[in-house]
Design goal:
Order of helices and strands: HHEEHEHEHEHHEHHEEHHHHEHEHEEHH
Largest sheet: 8 strands, parallel
Number of domains: 2
CATH class of the largest domain: Alpha Beta
Radius of gyration: 21 Å
Bound molecules: zinc ion
Shape: globular
Length: 336
């Protein structure tokens, strides 16, 4: 149904009209990781096939958008007017497979891009625990049967653990247990974890790769050290950013000044922390185009996913969806 309505809108010229009406409203595209195997089926919002990403970049070029850096976006914001068809490409987290799954397409079109890097899993090179547990339970439909030599045996009377029981126990035992638990889970399901290291599956970039990608022109910016922010107090939030900034500066030689809220969520009082640290911009996961009134520390983005069609992607990028959402909320407010 959605496809029929969007095709009709496109046919009626509404896509072209929306693109003209929103030409001076920057688009900030949001990506995450690249699927090594079947992760795009597990979580299409986090993992995209490299072929999908390449196709999207070709469309951005074909439709005449002008990708710029976050520094340039900030400059345009302070100049009082955004450039025509300005677009920013952002990549969250630091998944290792972006090196071969995204960089070639970015280079092909000579597009600048920003990686919001969470530095904990760069420094600690192992699969991202919670996501890896969810992935393995999704793939093999659980539960985990504990062997006699299981490291969990002394801490539970259960013989089998479902995902919630396992994650609860893992949280109680602390991060030192994460890798042994993951190994047990992989052994139980006959999944080869060693191969994950080679293929970069559910792994973050190594420190050396971050340095190499920065040298190739990828801007490395802030996403907290441990992907934690929303529930922290001011001192903890500041520490997360300082730790993050410190590792990034060691790896790139640059002071990162652009921020992305982990999971996109933010509270108004967090802006003080970002202001105090003199950060220039911050992005959220609120869906929409930037406008002249957007606060530079709460910029909306357009979330691209592996399971949306090129037509839906175009509907978001041309601005027709943002205009429809804004129109709907305008009428809702009018009725209140
Ligand atoms: Zn993130």
């Amino acid at each position: 149904m959605k496809t029929i309505i969007l095709t009709l809108c496109q046919w009626l010229g509404l896509f072209s009209l929306a693109k003209i009406l929103t030409a001076r409203r920057p688009r900030i595209l949001c990506y995450h990781g690249i699927a090594v195997e079947d992760e795009h089926l597990f979580s299409p919002g986090v993992f995209m096939q490299s072929s999908t990403f390449a196709r999207r970049m070709a469309l951005v070029a074909k439709w005449g958008y002008k990708p710029v850096s976050l520094d340039e976006l900030y400059r345009q914001h302070h100049a009082g007017q955004y450039g025509k068809d300005t677009l920013v490409i952002t990549i969250d987290d630091g998944w290792a497979a972006i090196e071969y799954g995204m960089l070639p397409a970015l280079k092909k079109h000579n597009f600048p891009a920003t990686l919001y890097l969470c530095t904990y899993f760069v420094v600690n090179q192992r699969p991202v625990f919670k996501l890896a547990v969810y992935y393995l339970f999704w793939k093999y439909k659980g539960p985990l049967t504990l062997s006699d030599s299981s490291c969990l045996k002394p801490y539970t009377t259960l013989q089998q653990l479902g995902i919630n029981e396992l994650l609860k126990l893992a949280a109680e035992l602390g991060s030192a247990f994460e890798q042994p638990i993951l190994q047990e889970l992989a052994d139980c399901f006959d999944e080869d974890l060693t191969n994950w290291q080679y293929t970069c599956k559910l792994m973050f970039l190594s420190p050396e790769k971050v340095t190499a990608l920065a040298k190739q022109g990828l801007a490395i910016e802030l996403h907290t050290h441990r992907h934690k922010f929303l529930k922290l107090d001011s001192a903890e939030m500041t520490k997360e950013i300082i730790d993050n900034q410190h590792v990034i500066s060691q790896l790139t030689g640059k002071i990162a000044q652009h921020f992305c809220y982990p999971s996109g969520n933010h509270r108004p009082e967090q802006l003080h922390v970002l202001n105090n640290m003199e950060l220039k911009t911050a992005t959220t996961t609120e869906n929409g185009l930037v406008n002249a009134r957007s606060h530079p520390l709460t910029l909306p983005r357009l979330m691209d996913r592996d399971n949306i069609s090129d037509l839906e992607f175009e509907a978001e990028l041309c601005g027709v969806m943002t205009l429809l959402r804004e129109l709907t909320s305008f009428f809702k407010r009018g009725r209140q």
